[in-house]
Design brief:
Layout (H helix, E strand, L loop, with lengths): L18 H9 L8 H7 L5 H11 L4 H14 L3 H9 L3 H15 L19 H20 L3 H18 L8 H4 L2 H19 L2 H12 L7 H17 L21 H17 L7 H13 L3 H9 L8 H14 L3 H11 L11 H12 L5 H14 L5 H20 L4 H21 L4 H13 L3 H14 L5 H13 L3 H14 L2 H17 L3 H24 L8 H24 L3 H14 L4 H13 L3 H14 L4 H14 L3 H15 L4 H13 L3 H16 L8
Helix pairs in contact: 4-5, 4-7, 5-7, 6-7, 6-8, 7-8, 7-10, 8-10, 10-11, 11-12, 12-13, 12-14, 13-14, 14-15, 15-16, 16-17, 16-18, 17-18, 18-19, 18-20, 19-20, 20-21, 20-22, 21-22, 22-23, 23-24, 24-25, 24-26, 25-26, 26-27, 26-28, 27-28, 28-29, 28-30, 29-30, 30-31, 31-32, 32-33, 32-34, 33-34, ...
Length: 713
């Protein structure tokens, strides 16, 4: 008789079956003889020893346990049909209460027992329980191999039901020392959710994962982390929304309200384990966390976890690139650009260049004129590194190079430098357009640069190409096209374009197009129509605000859209104040200015418009103060610079040199400002320099003929 783990002997609980009753019924179908000699002759050489030991052990087992052992042999040999036939002969349903009772009795915490506290002999040994649990597990695996996945999942779930019914608070550590119960249970924990996923029952799979995690089942840290990672992946990519059951709402108001919130919580726990060295680094955890935090736009949090990665996990350039992506997505372009500058630093000269990081640096630099020169460096590095095989990268680099050259031209002090940069800008953008014919961004920027340089016919053609290339409506494309038409004094055509665009535009674009329509109406001296257009714009903003306050769905609109709407509302009030000032409606103008300042008090345009209102009332000193406030907020605000110079010109005398200095500064910032050229001509005329004045007037006239109703950029 063999001894169990608990020290007790196995005895047959029922009368032994006759050799024919068990063997013939169970093994004739699989080709095995009931006699020991015939059985051994069918086994492979390397299985003989195992078969002999199993037969010896089977002499001390009851009917169900013998089936469990024989079924295991068939499974190990790959005879899944035969194994399934053997396992189906075990009446698990009637045995589960006894198995549960056995686990309860035999897994109590060891302590001195009283004489009356003796386990009854009818209680199964843990060895028997382990054998039967293994039989259920192998039956599930056999069903899986035969394609019966749903039935396999149900069998696997039975193991969890039996053990969990006995161990309400999880497993204590001593169980593994006695038997294979813990091993079988752990295998079932890991197998069950995979079976449900394979059959397409994701709800059941998520429930199975949660079941494996809510109690301490003695899983080692790495296996536990694997289950957590798989649950997070299923929650993220499964496409099925499952809320946490009430008994898992242990965090109160901070309980996850959606799959993605639960997945993020799990992944953050895993990242903490990695940081503390409890588990090994797993790139998949970071990949899942990157996806989850990107979808929820928590880019700064993602950057924090990227920074926590131990040295050596990422290459330095790759790490800087990843962090730059995070910070740029969070709106911190300055931080992102500083990280990308490290990629092209002296410390990386001996390493393989990171082309994507350099290209991304060129892109970020192209968004802000003050970084134009950094963008030129980034883009030129990419062009020098890539060959003709990587033509896409080269085309992208030329696109950003052209944009950066254009931005550099607009902030350049030297006329010769500005002319050079403008030429280089068009050269690079034309190269990009030639090599990236399907990229609408190239065509838009080529149109914009030509418009800025007053190549209006070319700009119009490129803008039309851009409009035909974009699949969806592009508000900025229609706006650029209307501005180009206005620069050619084709106001009716521009209004027609805007009327067409307004029907197709998104909410934010619609506000911008309405405002441009009003500006066109002002340019055609139709102020009443312009005022009505502004009223329509403001009513749309108000209606949207009311919808957000009453509708929870609209209230979740992005912060970017809300900021854009507030800015457009402020601009509308500023424009209305300008209209009322020109027509002497001082109280109405003041009301509009108060509305604009209530949205943003420190707006240079609001204070500039205030100065125009004072100037219209012949309050020149007050106007000068308002223009000064505008320039204190934004020193390079060209309209206030020109207006200050115009006031100083009217004072005459010693104010003329100061006025000239202001105007030269304005032309440095905006060489195409015809108002600045006009005022320079008036100053030259007052000083008696008639030829110089004539040149200035000629420049002002030519620029005014090609000036759009508002700046292209």
């Amino acid at each position: 008789m063999l001894c169990a783990c608990s020290g007790e002997q196995f005895k047959f609980e029922d009368a032994p079956q006759s050799p024919e009753s068990l063997a013939t019924r169970d093994f004739s179908a699989s080709g095995l003889s009931s006699r020991t000699g015939d059985w051994e002759s069918k086994l492979e050489d390397d299985q003989v020893g195992e078969a002999e030991s199993t037969l010896k052990e089977a002499l001390s087992l009851n009917y169900e346990e013998a089936r469990a052992l024989l079924g295991r042999l068939e499974y190990q040999r790959g005879n899944f049909d035969a194994a399934l036939q053997v396992f189906q002969g075990i009446d698990i349903k009637s045995l589960t209460p006894r198995m549960t009772m056995a686990i309860v009795e035999r897994t109590r915490q060891r302590k001195p027992r009283s004489k009356g506290d003796i386990i009854p002999p009818t209680v199964m040994s843990m060895h028997s329980v382990s054998l039967l649990l293994e039989a259920i597990l192998l039956k599930a695996k056999s069903l899986k191999e035969l394609g019966h996945i749903r039935e396999a999942a149900k069998e696997c779930k039975l193991i969890l039901d039996v053990v969990e019914a006995a161990l309400h608070n999880g497993m204590h550590e001593g169980i593994a020392e006695d038997c294979k119960l813990q091993e079988m249970f752990h295998k079932a924990l890991e197998l069950l959710p995979n079976l449900w996923i394979e059959v397409g029952c994701l709800d059941e799979a998520i429930t199975a994962y949660r079941r494996a995690l809510v109690k301490p089942w003695n899983l080692d840290p790495q296996r536990l982390a694997s289950v957590q990672k798989d649950l997070a992946a299923t929650l993220l990519y499964g496409g099925v929304e499952t809320s946490l059951p009430p008994h898992l709402h242990v965090w109160g108001s901070t309980t996850p309200n959606s799959n993605i919130e639960e997945a993020i919580l799990i992944l953050l726990v895993l990242m903490q384990k990695v940081a503390y060295g409890e588990i090994k680094w797993d790139a998949e955890i970071m990949d899942h966390l990157t996806f989850a935090l990107s979808v929820t736009e928590q880019f700064e949090l993602l950057a924090e976890h990227g920074e926590q990665a131990s040295p050596g996990i990422y290459e330095r350039a790759e790490r800087w690139y990843f962090l730059a992506l995070c910070y740029a997505a969070a709106g911190q372009n300055e931080v992102a650009l500083n990280l990308l500058k490290k990629v092209s630093g002296l410390s990386e000269t001996k390493r393989e260049p990171h082309v994507l990081a350099l290209l991304f640096g060129a892109y970020i630099s192209s968004q802000d004129p003050k970084h134009a020169h950094h963008g030129i460096t980034f883009a030129r590095n990419v062009i020098d590194l890539v060959d003709e095989v990587n033509g896409h990268f080269k085309g992208e680099a030329h696109k950003f190079l052209g944009i950066c050259y254009g931005n550099a031209a607009r902030i350049s002090i030297s006329d010769s430098e500005r002319a050079l940069f403008q030429k280089e800008s068009l050269t690079s953008l034309n190269y990009a357009a030639l090599n990236m014919k399907e990229d609408p961004e190239v065509m838009f920027n080529l149109s914009l640069e030509n418009a800025v340089q007053r190549n209006l016919d070319v700009a119009f053609d490129n803008a039309m190409k851009y409009s035909s290339m974009v699949a969806e409506n592009s508000g900025r494309g229609w706006k650029l096209l209307a501005l180009i038409l206005s620069a050619n004094e084709r106001f009716k055509d521009a209004e027609t374009i805007l009327e067409f665009a307004l029907d197709e535009a998104s909410r934010t674009d619609q506000l911008e197009l309405l405002r441009l329509q009003a500006v066109l109406q002002i340019a055609q001296e139709r102020p009443k129509q312009a005022i009505e257009t502004y009223r329509t714009l403001l009513s749309l903003v108000q209606a949207q605000r009311e919808a957000q306050s009453s509708n929870s769905v609209h209230a979740k609109s992005s912060d970017t859209e809300n900021v854009a709407e507030r800015k457009m509302e402020m601009v509308a009030w500023q424009d209305l104040a300008t209209i009322y000032s020109k027509f002497g409606s001082w109280p109405d103008a003041e009301i509009c200015l108060d509305k604009a300042k209530s949205i943003e008090f420190y707006s240079p345009k609001s204070w500039h418009t205030t100065g125009l209102l004072f100037e219209a009332q012949s309050l020149y000193k007050e106007a000068l103060v308002s223009f000064s406030i505008s320039l204190s907020i934004e020193p390079d605000y060209v309209p206030s610079i020109v207006s200050t110079a115009a006031l100083l010109r009217q004072f005459g005398g010693q104010s003329l040199p100061v006025a000239r200095s202001f105007l030269m500064n304005a032309l440095r910032l905006d060489p195409t400002n015809h108002d600045a050229w006009m005022n320079l001509g008036l100053i030259a005329k007052m000083e008696g320099s008639l030829q110089l004045a004539a040149d200035f007037f000629q420049a002002a006239y030519e620029l005014m003929l090609s000036a759009p109703v508002e700046a292209f950029t």
